[in-house]
Amino acid sequence: MSMMSIGSEEEEELRRRKLDEALEVKSLRRIISAYLNYPEASEEDVKRYELSFQKLPLSHKALLSHLPQKFQQLRWCISENSVFIFQMLQAFDPPLNMSQDIDICEHEKLKTTNKHYGEKDARSCQSEEKSHHHSIDEAKSVDEKDVARRLPEVEFSSSPDWLDPSLQSHVPMVDVDKVRCIIRNIVRDWAPEGKIERDQCYKPILEELESQFPNRSAGSPPSCLVPGAGLGRLALEISCLGFVCQGNEFSYYMMICSSYILNYTQVAGEWTIYPWIHSNCNALSDRDQLRPVSMPDIHPASAGITEGFSMCGGDFVEVYKDPSQAGTWDAVVTCFFIDTAHNIVEYIEIISKLLKDGGVWINLGPLLYHFADMYGQEDEMSVELSLEEVKRVAFHYGFELEKEKTIEATYTTNPRSMMQNRYFAAFWTMRKKASRVAVETQATT
User: Fold this and answer.
1) Residue of 269, 278, 285 whose CA lies nearest to 183
2) What per-residue confidence (pLDDT) applies to 267?
3) How many CB atoms lie within 10 A of CB 149?
4) Where are the domains of the chain?
5) 254, 224 in Cβ contact below 8 A?
6) Which of 317, 122, 106, 109 is nearest to 227 (CA)?
7) Higher-confidence residue: 195 or 134?
8) Do the Cβ atoms of 235 and 247 come closer than 8 Å?
C-alpha cells in the first residue's frame, strides 16, 4: 500500500470522526434546547386551556369559575419545575466542545447508519454518547442561583455560553415530550411516590441478585452491569448490595438528569417538582393533578454504595461489543431494556459475551419494541421477536433458564390517574453455561 493511500485513509477516518462529533454536538444542543424550551412550551399549553375557557358560554364560565385560578396555579408549578431543570443544566459539564462549529453536518455527504443522536421513543428518551462517565464518589455542592421565577423565560446569572437562549433552535413537540418523560422518570426512580413502581420492578431483581450471590466479599465484590440504567436508581441499589456496579445509558436526556441527582444532591427531599400537571385527562381531582412530589427520597452519596460504582454513557452495542469487555461481568441486569434494540439478537449475543462462564442474566420487562413503528425510514431496522423466540435465541447463545415468571408492573404511571397502563412483564434468571473450551480445560486440570 502506498504512503499516499495510507494518508488518504487517515484523512477519511479523521473526517468521519469530526462528522460523528459534530452530529453529537448538534444532538446535544437539540436536547439542551428541549430542556430550555420547557417553560415556553408549557405556557403554550396553559394559553390553549385559557382560550378554550374563553370560548365557553357565560353560563358555563360561571359554572367553571375556578378554572382561571387553576391556570395560574399551573403556571406556578411550571415555574417550579423550570427552576429545577435550569439548575440541573447549569451543573451539567458537557463531555463535548459545545462551542465548535457544526456546519459540517449540513455539508457532509457521508451516510451515518444506525446513529440516532436523540431520536428514540418517549419511554426511554434516548440519545447517544460513547465515553462520558460520572460517579458519586462524593456529593458536590450547588451554588444558589439567581432565578427569576417568571414565564415563559427563566434567567440565570453567569450561565454557560451554550445555555444562551438566543443560540437555541426550534424545538419539535416530540423533544418537549421527552423532557416531560424525564420528569415522570424522576418520580419513578427518586421520589417516595415512585416506591410502588420500584418495588414492582426493582425489588424482584435485587432479591434475585442477593439469592444468586449470597456470600459477597467486600474485598472481592461481584460485578454487575445494568444496560439502560435510566436515572440510575437500580444501579445504585445494586451497588448498595455490595456489587461493583456500572450503569449504562444511551440518552443525554437521562444522563444530564441522573448526573445532577447523583452528584449534586445535598439532602434528601431537596427539590419539589410537579410531574402530573401536563395532562388534564383522567385526573380524579385538580388537587391530585397539581400535587407536589419531593425528591430524592434518599441522599445518593450517603446510601452506602460499593466503591467502583459508575455510570457509563453510550450506545450499549457500541460500548460493550469491545473485546476487552468479554467475560468480565458476573451479572447483567436488564430492566425495561431489551426491547430498545434494533436487533434484539445482537443484544443477547453481546450479553452472553459479556458474562463470565456461570454468570447470570436477570431480566424484567415487556417487548414493546421501540423501533417497531418507524415506518418509511429506510435506514431503520427493527427485529421484533415473540417471547418464545427471544428465549430460543438466548439458548442458542449458551444460556440456561433457571427461573421464569410474569410480573405485573407499570412504567412512569401516575398512581392517582383513572387510567393505569400495566405490563405483564417477563422476569427470568438465565445462567451462561461454561464454554466447551472451559469445560475441556477443567477436565484436564
Assistant:
1) 278
2) 97
3) 11
4) 5-102+115-444
5) no
6) 317
7) 195
8) yes
Sequence-distant (6+) residues with CB within 8 A of 266 are 139, 141, 142, 299
Q: Is the dihedral of CA 249, 251, 254, 260 positive or negative?
A: positive
**Phi, psi angles (nearest 5°) of residue 273:** -125, 170
Residue whose C-alpha cell is 407536589: 292
pLDDT 10s digits, 315-341: 999 999 999 999 999 999 999 999 999
Maximum Cα interatomic distance, the chain, rounded to a whole number of Å: 91
Of 151, 127, 369, residue with least CA distance to 258:
127
Instruction: Please give the grid coordinates belonging to residue 78.
Output: 411550571
For residue 273, give the nearest of 254, 251, 253, 297 by alpha carbon: 297
CA–CA dist 251, 231 (Å, integer): 10
Q: Are strands 133-134 and 355-365 parallel, antiparallel or unpaired?
A: unpaired
SS3 per-residue string spanning 358-405? EEEEEEEECCCCCCCCCCCCCCCCCECCCHHHHHHHHHHCCEEEEEEE
Confidence of residue 116 (pLDDT cuts 50, 70, 90): very low
Decide: helix, strand or coil at residue 97. coil
Grid coordinates belonging to 220: 472481592
d(CA 59, CA 75): 26
* CA–CA distance, 443 with 437 (Å, rounded to integer): 10
Asked if residue 101 has pLDDT above 60, the reply is no
Q: In sequence order, which residues have a C-beta less than 8 Å from that of residue 328 and are 6 or more positions away? A: 223, 354, 356
Looking at the DSSP assignment, which residues form a beta bridge with residue 227? 248
State the pLDDT confidence band at 218, using cuts at 50, 70 and 90: confident
Asked whether 445 and 414 are in contact (CB, 8 A), the reply is no
Written as nine digits, the cell of 163 is: 445555555
Over the Cα atoms of the chain, what is R_g? 24
* CA–CA separation, 36 and 153 (whole Å): 9
Residue 374 pLDDT > 90, yes or no? no
Inter-residue contact 257 to 128 (CB < 8 Å) = no
In the Cβ-directed half-sphere of 370, how many Cα atoms lie within 13 Å? 19
- The domain 5-102+115-444 is classified under which CATH number: 1.10.8.420, 1.20.1640.10, 3.40.50.720, 3.40.50.150? 3.40.50.150
Give the cell for residue 263.
452528584
Of 51, 252, 276, 297, nearest to 134 by C-alpha is 252
pLDDT (tens digit, 9 = 90+) per residue, 343-369? 999 999 999 999 999 999 999 999 999
